[in-house]
Fold each of these.
Amino acid sequence: MELTTEQTNILVEIFQDFLKTNDKLYQHSEVQNGFIETILRKANQGTFHLSKDELIFLAHFTSDFISEFARRYNAYNLKFWINITEEVFREMIKKDLLIDILSKSNIDYLKDIFHHNLAFRSSNVLGVIQKLKECNTVLLSSITDPYKIGFVYQFDEILVLEFKHSFDIADQLFYKFTNYHDVKNSFFGELTRQDAYKVISKCDLEKYPSDNIDFLLYVLQ
């Protein structure tokens, strides 16, 4: 693969930060430092091809990066996706880049080594959340303690959440429909996002996972 100048700069930042924060642990590891130096040299050459050993090293490095990211920012629940800070957003870009490099390399080398989803990108989840916030039409299963909500995007796509049970927003996608009338009839009624906010804000919290209500109010505000 070929890295852009911006991607190369991000990769340099990733490893420089790593070496600064882990200097006591890794300053005597010539093998690891050698891998990092080689990867950065190749990144600056434009065309970016890693050997099997270099790719395996990067896979382990990326796994550790993802685990540390989740631990540091408590990225295990819906509340994590509310009000992403600049710091977290920057770390997301780094994480996505590392996964992107692995996904475009020889993935046969990654079997039994890298156990994270190579298709997952934080930027895609943020894109879905942004579309939720842009939906002006909302469908609800009822106006009293609803169990299902549909976010209609430009009367062309919809994302449906059954929110009386916990859900992972990273697994949710908009899908296109051909007949809005049929979609609408599968719900109780059609509301503006402002009216939907009022309904959700009055839900009995004992009947829902609290993160679900907080998240819905966030995207509807």
Note: The two ends are 41 Å apart (CA to CA).
Amino acid sequence: MASISLAIAARGTCDARRMWDRLRSWPAMDTHLAYDDETVLAGKPDWIVAHHCESGSIFRYWGEAIANCQGDYVAVLSPYLVPCEAWLDAMAAAAVSGERAYFGPVEENYAKEDRAIVGYLVEYGHFHRPFRAEHREIPGSNLLVKSSQLPPRETLRKQGFTKTALLNDWNKHGYRPTLVEAAVAFHDRFFDASGYRKRRYSHGRAYGVSRRKGLGWVGVLVSLAKTILLPGLRTWRILMRVRHVAHLDQTARRHIWAILASEAAWSVGEFVGLATGNPGDVERLD
């Protein structure tokens, strides 16, 4: 059976105790945590190897954690996405087939009145099952990758790791990771409305700069015009994807203005990134 290592990255203040409780329920395994704030260490099992990073983006931290893994497969995880109890067995059973990568669903685990669910709906609502075959993205940091498919260790340490870049490269060649239905991870992140909108703005701005490359001035103008419409379109897509799940449908409608505001923040950031070519402080992305 293929061996599995876990790579976890945490930037800034982070309460990872639910993640550590989950890992403590599994057998001890090769696990590496890259971090910069000691709050994430509270409750950490002794067998997890921690690598302190002085500064950098979350992508550099993931690169550091992945570069230290020794398994045949590396699971790219976030302390904000806690695997279910069956996750490890499900991924290990799937890896027997030898595919280059696998991914699991991301689901919510909040009470209906908890506003933290807004973060889930915005970032993962459009991934809600059933997955569409044509959906080229995959949800969250719930990914298992064959080690041989990853960049060299020194490249990971210097340039970091981004799921999006890896998947985009695979998409160009017609490859998509294999879904493992039972390998569910639960969204578990503190939600502060103002801070969340700022984070969405920062990510949108960096994304806008990445989109700007190779567009030409006509393409940039067209993309700028589209950003005005996208908040409404993305909010509508979220509503459509969760409408068959009664409690998510009700919650999405209850928080529709918070969802729309966060999508507007992303679009403003994307507009600035497209217009200026300046990604802002990418080191602060998490």
Note: Strands lie at 4-10, 31-35, 49-52, 73-77, 81-83, 101-103, 106-107, 142-146, 178-179, 185-187.
